[in-house]
Amino acid sequence: MARPPKPKQNPIQNAVRSWLDSLPPALVDSLTEQFNTDTDTTSHNDIKQVLLDRAPKRWVVYEPMVLLPSGSFASPPWPALLSSSTPSQTEPLWTAILAQLSPTNSKPPLTHLAINEGIPLHLSQPSSPPLLPSTEKEEDEKENLLRSPSHLHPLHGPFFFNPSSSSSSTSQQQPPDFNASLWVTTKQNNLIQTWSPQHTMFSRGNIKEKARLLSSFGHHHHPSQKRVAIDLYAGIGYFTFSFAKLGMRVLCWELNPWSVEGLRRGAEANGFSIRVVVAVTPPGVVDVDMKEVLAGGEQIVVFLEDNRFAARRVAEMEDSRVVHVNCGFLPSSEGVWRDAFGMVGGGRGWLHLHENVGAGDIEARKAVVQRLFDGWAKEEEEDDGETGATVKHVELVKTFAPGVWHCVFDVLITRSSAVA
Asked: Where is this region: Disordered (predicted)?
């Protein structure tokens, strides 16, 4: 009778176990005095087992980086052990974790290790002045509009970024040195995403919504540069690339220059042609020649500017029809819905409106969204023929917090006065 296979051991646990065995016994034994266990026995092996039990067991690979979950190595007695260890003692732990997780095939080894501390919705202290104008009111300036991962905790590898190094007014005016930062990649739905983990976020949970766009709306369109999708919060190209893969031309807006650079690198990695338009525009001044911008024929055109200029830019397009507008901002993208409604061309087109909604409030919120668009459609009809707007579907993407869903409201816009 064959023996059952041995249970597969967790590679991080393997690395931690070997590292603990390599430490001077006195270093581990010193923790027994600091750590109050619930048992009467606090031997050397007891402490090692507690450390092992409280080490992280999960990870995500974004080549060449390994990202550990928030709270890793934060449970006692880990902080005491790490603070009492020298860098030469802790380095072997980080390198052992990377070695355990690195691929055994011909792919390059993993070289960077960090703990994910999340993307704060608000910054706890004033950040450096924004590089570009914002529509936010002064009292909202501490909102983390750029979704910067300000609490990423690097453990190993050169990440090259020190947030406090840009304190002088002169340095704030310097363009970002993109090549001096770590860039990581992953592939979802056969599309490559690229970003700098200390400057921009990455949300794994969007994979479901990206796949839905590809599967649910792919059959509506044949590849054509005449059909346009608009992405008003492009980020690193989460949804931009899905629309591009469907054969549409995509115009997108993004405020964070690091996200725009990630979008540019990702587009090139996926084989999409791309143009970046840096358009710092004072209010009321139109300094972008849309005819010239679009003449190059690039499949993706990204505007590094506030999306409050998007409606004006889209109105200046010639010989193109907007068939999708994506509004992917949380907790709510409502601030751009009126503009998005006006962007859809003749015939029919879709708006994808992202919002966080309480689990028990989704139907009520759907009704509110419907009333909003009914009102706008009625206003438009008075001037311009028949217009319809219908909330066709509410997609529950993922839970954002207990009892709160990240929802996408699909709104179908129809305009009968134009040629479909």
From this structure: 122-148
CATH class of 204-415: alpha beta
Percent of the chain with pLDDT over 70: 78
β-strand 347-358 against 300-304: which pairing, if any?
A: unpaired
Q: What is the arrangement of strands in the sheet containing 153-156, beginning at the earlier edge strand?
A: 60-62, 65-68, 112-115, 153-156
pLDDT tens-digit series, residues 198-240: 888 788 778 889 989 988 886 554 444 478 999 999 999 999 9
Sequence letter at residue 395: E
**Is the distance from CB of 32 to CB of 47 less than 8 angstroms?**
yes
* Rounded distance between C-alpha atoms, residue 153 and residue 67, angstroms: 10
Which residue type, as a one-letter code, is found at position 99?
A: A
Is the preceding omega at residue 108 within 30 degrees of 0, hence cis? no
Check whether 41 has a pLDDT greater than 80: no
Phi, psi values for residue 11, rounded to 5°: -65, -35
- Taking residues 161-185, report their average pLDDT: 64
Three-state SS sequence of the chain: CCCCCCCCCCHHHHHHHHHHHHCCHHHHHCHHHHCCCCCCCCCHHHHHHHHHHCCCCCCEEEECEEEECCCCCCCCCHHHHHHHCCHHHHHHHHHHHHHHHCCCCCCCCCCEEEECCCCCCECCCCCCCCCCCCCCCHHHCCECCCCCCCCCEEEECCCCCCHHHHCCHHHHCCCCCHHHCCCEEEEECCEEEEECCCCCCCCHHHHHHHHHHHHHCHHHCCCCCCEEEEECCCCCCCCHHHHHHCCCEEEEEECCHHHHHHHHHHHHHHCCCEEEEECCCCCCCCCCCHHHHHHCCCCEEEEECCHHHHHHHHHCCCCCEEEEEEECCCCECHHHHHHHHHHCCCEEEEEEEEEEEEHHHHHHHHHHHHHHHHHHHHHHHHHHCCEEEEEEEEEEEEEEECCEEEEEEEEEEEECCCCC
Asked if residue 322 lies in contact with residue 346, where contact means CB atoms within 8 angstroms, the answer is no
- Residues in CB range of 289: below 8 A, 6 or more apart: none
Tell me the CA end-to-end span of the chain in Å, nearest whole number: 70
Nearest to 273 by CA among 295, 232, 244: 244
CA distance 266 to 263: 5
Integer Cα distance of 281 and 260 in angstroms? 17
Domain extents in the chain: 11-115, 204-415
Q: Output the six-digit token pair for 149.
A: 């991962």
